[in-house]
Design brief:
The chain is an alpha/beta fold. The chain is built from 11 helices and 10 strands. The protein has 3 domains: 109 residues, Tetrapyrrole methylase, N-terminal domain (Cobalt-precorrin-4 Transmethylase, domain 1, 3-Layer(aba) Sandwich), CATH 3.40.1010; 108 residues, Methyltransferase, Cobalt-precorrin-4 Transmethylase, Domain 2 (2-Layer Sandwich); 41 residues. The structure holds S-adenosylmethionine. The site of S-adenosylmethionine has 23 residues, from helix 5, strand 7 and strand 10.
Length: 278
């Protein structure tokens, strides 16, 4: 709406204070109010950049009530920025309710891009980046955690998780149990900070690394798991080429059925390979 204020979703550093854009600083200086997850925490960042805009809190426990107040202010013409404790708001952080309601009220929501731990970790991990699946934090309860991992047994994309120091060791052990010890894992720790580390290996190897020096279990973690590698050794190259060609012209189900009949292969295997290829 023309005379209404706007909501800016502003990404902030995930460790290194220098990782903030010029545009983010300008916006944080210009808006009428900054909604932050933890105002005391964000005050340090604002002080560092001499930003004296008023801060108010917006966290999981007051989001719906705060969203209402902020929307009323925006409808009166005030501009609002949303930041979280670190990285991009809404990515495993509060803000979804506010953005959703702003959109419903036809208010402008403008993203100001910057750091995000998942993307920062993935771009330097050495795992495939063409397809990835961001899972955020695994559930806390043991059974739900196990079920969440079981759903990834056939996932061919790289999977990315956030994990807390309290649970990292248990999670690595569970990954080994559920997904097996063949998968390659990369654990990124303390990104952009002094003791940034990337450790790769199987779940077993990473467990050993974490246990070797318990201090390694402290800090912030992004865990990445390589996607399932489909065994295609029993599929002749000509069958794969035919599948690729037929997929261009026919629905995958039909293409897989034709190739399966022609080469005496399993329709379901070809269908899954087709999904990976598409
Ligand atoms: N919104 C943030 C983002 O854009 O990445 C994520 C917020 S989430 C509440 C916090 C989690 O992100 C941490 O528990 C950790 O898993 C991950 N994380 C944040 N900063 C990190 C860092 N510097 N190094 C590694 N992981 C980090």
């Amino acid at each position: 709406m023309e005379d209404s204020g706007k909501l800016y979703i502003v990404a902030t550093p995930i460790g290194n204070l220098a990782d903030i854009t010029h545009r983010a600083i300008d916006i944080l200086k210009q808006v009428d109010v900054i909604a932050a997850e933890d105002t005391r925490h964000s005050q340090k960042l604002l002080q560092h950049y001499q930003i004296d805009t008023r801060l108010i809190s917006l966290h999981d426990h007051n989001e719906s009530q705060r969203a209402k107040q902020l929307i009323e202010r925006m409808q009166k013409g005030l501009n609002v920025a949303l930041i979280s404790d670190a990285g991009t708001p809404l990515i495993s952080d509060p803000g979804y309710g506010l953005v959703n309601q702003c959109r419903a009220e036809q208010l402008d929501v403008i993203p100001i891009p910057g750091p995000c731990a998942a993307i920062t970790a993935m771009c330097a991990a050495g795992l495939a980046t063409d397809k990835f699946r961001f899972e955020g934090f695994l559930p806390v309860k043991e059974q739900a955690r196990q079920q969440a991992l079981e759903l990834l047994l056939e996932e061919t994309a790289t999977c990315i998780f956030y994990e807390s120091p309290r649970r990292i060791l248990d999670t690595i052990k569970l990954v080994g149990r559920v997904l097996g010890n063949e998968r390659q894992l990369v654990l990124a720790k303390e990104l952009t900070k002094t003791f940034e580390t990337f450790t790769s290996g199987t779940a077993e190897q990473i467990e050993i690394w974490l246990r070797e020096e318990p201090v390694r279990q402290k800090g912030e973690f992004v865990l990445m798991i390589a996607g399932m590698q489909r065994d295609m050794s029993n599929i002749p190259q000509v069958a794969l080429s035919l599948l690729k060609n037929l997929m261009q012209e026919l629905p995958l189900k039909k293409a897989a059925a034709i190739v399966a009949a022609h080469y005496e292969l399993k329709k379901n295997d070809l269908y899954k390979i087709g999904l990976d290829l598409s």
